[in-house]
Amino acid sequence: MLDHAELGSVNLDGSTLPGIDTESLQVVRWFGMRNARIAGQGWFHHVRVGGGLDLSGSRFGGPVNLQRAVIEGDARLGHGAGYAAGLRMDGTRIAGDLSLAKADAQAPTDGAAISANAVTVGISVRAHDLVTDGVVMMNGLRAAVAIVLQRNTLRNPDGDALLLVEAQTAMLTLRLTPSSAGMIVLRDAHVGRLIDDPVGWPEACRIELAGLTYERVTRRSDDATEWTAAQRLTWMARYATGFTPGPYDQLAAALQRDGREQEASEVRRVRERLRHRAMGRLGAVWGAMQDVAIGFGYRPAWALLWLVAVLAAGSGFFAWSGPLRPITLGGAPTWDPLLYTLDLLVPLVDLGQERAWDPVGADKAVAVAVMAAGWVLATTVVAGAGRALRR
């Protein structure tokens, strides 16, 4: 029992205790309880430690409560530590690193395996090789440098395995082992650099990406190969929940910042394709037409080919059906089906042919179709040229 005590430092390394209660304990320098065995609960609510807190290797049979603590150094809560009835540290402030590496935690009947909501960490959260049964809650977590979730096994097959809602950090590493299971929720998180593994994603994990923002999506320095945009799109289609355009916009913007323009355009095409499918049958049909014809505007070369095809088809039709009736007798230029089709096809260009001839019947229907195709296709070509010039 250390409730409300004021101590210079605490060393309980190797202890075997039925429980420990340190409500509002104040320690000037260092609190250490490494490789201890605690049969019951560990109550560290509202403790204040001027240096580091080290529970490495300690095993707790009851719940551990580290809520609203203030740690002026590092908090080492892993390296073989075990939490048989969960770890709660909501609202805690840690000036240095928070380490949960190689820890294991099981959720109690009515709680989380780890609850670290609204925790503020001055440097990084290190949680590689963490094993949990039950949800890990890190909503509103703030880490100035990094959150590293590497080789973690997070298991909660019937619910959320990891909640990082509205978390903020400069770099997030999220790589789970194949035996992980449950929902991974990154909703409204803000990340500078995202490092994940779309190729090796666990089969039993879904992911929510709505509202997630990041500047770059990169790989680790020890990765042998770099993922492709196609692999990431396949991963999103297979594991992401529902469809919202935001995750695709984020991915395209990140690829563009890295100079991967072609892949960014492909991501935007997929976004438009899925958006139109979500609009119902008519939207899906209209989207399929745009996709095939002009790649939703992100394949201007296709539009140019369609322009040439429409020009050839229109010229062939008017050569067969023409010449058309002149609007002004004796004042019309020489009939030229190619120039007439080109005048119809290219907007804002006047070759004198369109104003000189008056189509009727089938000729008029074909002329209107050529003009409509010209507006759509020429606009797409100009937009694509504009993007190329900006690059």
Summary of the model, kept short:
The protein is of the alpha/beta class and 391 residues long. The chain contains seven helices and 33 strands. The mean pLDDT is 85.
* N-to-C span: 67 Å
Helix-strand category:
alpha/beta
Strand % is 25-35%
Number of strands: 33
Helical content band? 25-40%
Shape: rod-shaped
Number of helices: 7
Stretches where pLDDT is under 50 for at least 5 consecutive residues are none
The main β sheet shows up as: 31 strands, parallel
* Estimated radius of gyration: 32 Å
Average pLDDT figure? 85
What does this structure look like?
The protein has helices at 229-239, 245-257, 261-277, 281-294, 300-321, 337-345, 362-390, and strands at residues 6-7, 10-11, 16-17, 20-21, 26-27, 31-32, 37-38, 42-43, 48-49, 53-54, 59-60, 64-65, 70-71, 75-76, 82-83, 87-88, 93-94, 98-99, 104-106, 114-115, 120-121, 124-126, 131-133, 136-137, 142-143, 146-163, 168-176, 181-185, 190-196, 204-208, 213-218, 325-326, 357-358. It has 391 residues and is an alpha/beta fold. It has a 31-stranded parallel beta sheet that branches. A two-stranded antiparallel sheet has the order 32-33. The radius of gyration is 32 Å and the shape is rod-shaped.
Give the tags.
391 residues; alpha/beta; 31-stranded parallel β-sheet; two-stranded antiparallel sheet
Outline the fold blueprint.
Layout: E1 6-7, E2 10-11, E3 16-17, E4 20-21, E5 26-27, E6 31-32, E7 37-38, E8 42-43, E9 48-49, E10 53-54, E11 59-60, E12 64-65, E13 70-71, E14 75-76, E15 82-83, E16 87-88, E17 93-94, E18 98-99, E19 104-106, E20 114-115, E21 120-121, E22 124-126, E23 131-133, E24 136-137, E25 142-143, E26 146-163, E27 168-176, E28 181-185, E29 190-196, E30 204-208, E31 213-218, H1 229-239, H2 245-257, H3 261-277, H4 281-294, H5 300-321, E32 325-326, H6 337-345, E33 357-358, H7 362-390
Parallel strand pairs: 1-5, 2-6, 3-7, 4-8, 5-9, 6-10, 7-11, 8-12, 9-13, 10-14, 11-15, 12-16, 13-17, 14-18, 15-19, 16-20, 17-21, 18-22, 19-23, 20-24, 21-25, 22-26, 23-26, 24-26, 25-27, 26-27, 26-28, 27-29, 28-30, 29-31
Antiparallel strand pairs: 32-33
Helix pairs in contact: 2-3, 3-4, 5-6, 5-7
